[in-house]
Predict the 3D structure of the following.
Amino acid sequence: MSRDTNLRYEQPHRPCKLFQEYIKNLQVNEVQLDKGQDQKMLDRKGLHDEWLEHSNVKLKARALKNEKKQLGHEIKMVAKANLLMRKRALALRIDADQKMYADELARFGKSFHTERI
């Protein structure tokens, strides 16, 4: 064996250009795949955040709608209470006027006519 032949087996193995190109392409593909997965995760996270924000908007809208309905109900109840209070005040005023008329007629010696039922 010649010296070149012996050295060929003793030196470190250098892979062929095709294999080196293949490894390089694999590494590039892995990097692109990692970037793609990272981008997918970011997109998914962004979509999730957008969904949560949209959900919060819907919840706030529903809460405002319920609050508006509750306020409408409270306004109706206040209107009913106000009407009852005005009716009672009017009834008290009519009773006071009738008593005043009865007292006036009693001073003149007359009676106030009341019907019995």
